[in-house]
Design goal:
CATH class of the domain at 4-235: Alpha Beta
Radius of gyration: 21 Å
Number of strands: 14
Order of helices and strands: EEEEEHEEHEHHHEHEHEEHHEE
Strand order of the largest sheet: 8-9-10-5-11-12-14-13
Helix content: 25-40%
Shape: globular
């Protein structure tokens, strides 16, 4: 059990924090699956991540990097092979479903696809009220009032409650999913690729909605995404993952403005973002990410790395802290020029688009 101390927050409930000041914390988390033929698939390899109260942390990487597996494991949808998960002062690593029930109230999730995460046979009122009924929030009148309040919080009109999900656009469905996740007034919210299934014209609205909710409700957020520019707009800190491992970590401005790992630099070069000083040539990585079943020796990134050296093929670089709050896993960190100078770029409200 981690050392904890009681710390009050802006709301009525006190958060129980780890010694590091985290509300949600995973230490040396390892997750494996059995692939066909009995082979072991290494989805997540000893990653550590923490989220403080009222903080927004981004977990970024390509498809197959393991970031969604981390999210699902933190929610205990996957059983970790090893490591520890602490939430609100409680070790939840191996709790039973019954023991997890009160935790579900305080730790909620928003899934990637708003089309499959909502029951098409249920009205919006029933969908949003479902967790309230499951946790015996109150009588019908109290629950109906709470549903109306939630729909207003996410920018949907009151008459939305009587309609079915099929009558809404993708962006509106994601608003419904967010309303449902907020129903029980959680302490922390895990958003797994919350805008990747939406049109680009709608993504800005949902990101602005999440930013506004975080400011008003003092919720801790863990945002899973592959788009560094988007994560930069909403997050305080960023952890970059590659092939199941964390390769870089730091404040959002530092990671985006002063990337150290060549993988982070390559991700940035492929991201359309506002820049200071113009665009730079895109860095194209050769080949696909290696298989998590047959991982490369040495640095996992070395088969695709633009600055690979012989040492990288045999020795595995540790994730080390080279400055307060800044970590990187690379022997030659900082030896690639960032593709875009974002350091002077201030975070601005994302542009509004037509109502979704």
């Amino acid at each position: 059990m981690a050392d904890v101390s009681k710390t009050p927050n802006a709301g009525a409930e006190a958060r129980t924090l780890t010694k590091s000041g985290n509300l949600l914390e995973a230490t040396d988390l390892k997750v494996t699956f059995r692939a066909p033929g009995g082979r072991k698939l290494h989805a997540v390899d000893t990653i550590s991540i923490g989220v403080k109260p009222r903080e927004t942390v981004g977990l970024v990487g390509e498809s197959g990097s393991g970031k969604s597996t981390v999210a699902l494991t933190l929610m205990r949808a996957h059983e970790p092979e090893s490591g520890q998960i602490i939430f609100d002062g409680l070790d939840i690593t191996h709790l039973s479903e019954r023991e997890l029930l009160p935790i579900r109230r305080k730790l909620q999730v928003v899934f990637q696809d708003p089309y499959s995460s909502l029951d098409p046979r249920m009205t919006v009122r029933r969908i949003v009220a479902e967790p309230l009924k499951a946790h015996r929030y109150g009588n019908r009148s109290v629950i109906n009032d709470r549903v109306d309040e939630l729909l207003e919080q996410v920018g949907l009109p009151p008459d939305a409650a009587q309609r079915l999900p099929a009558q809404f656009s993708g962006g509106q469905r994601q608003r419904i999913a967010i309303a449902r996740s907020l129903a029980l007034e959680p302490m922390a919210l895990i958003a797994d690729e919350p805008v990747s299934a939406l049109d680009v014209s709608i993504q800005a609205q949902i990101v602005n909605l999440l930013r506004g909710l975080q400011d008003r409700l003092n919720i801790a957020f863990l945002v899973i995404a592959h788009d560094l520019a988007l994560v930069h707009q909403i997050c305080d800190r960023i952890v970059v993952m590659y092939l199941g491992e964390a390769v870089e970590e730091g404040s959002a401005d530092d990671v985006v403005g002063r990337p150290q790992h060549p993988y982070t630099v390559a991700l940035l070069s492929a991201t359309p973002v506002p820049v200071v000083g113009g665009d730079a040539e895109r860095i194209l990585l050769t080949g696909d990410p290696p298989s998590p079943i047959h991982r490369p020796t040495g640095c996992r990134f070395h088969p695709r790395c633009p600055i690979v050296q012989e040492r990288c093929k045999t020795d595995k670089p540790p994730l080390v802290e080279f400055a307060p709050g800044r970590k990187v896993s690379c022997f030659y960190a900082g030896q690639m020029d960032p593709p875009r100078d974002l350091w002077a770029h201030e975070k601005e409200p994302l542009p509004e688009s037509p109502e979704d």
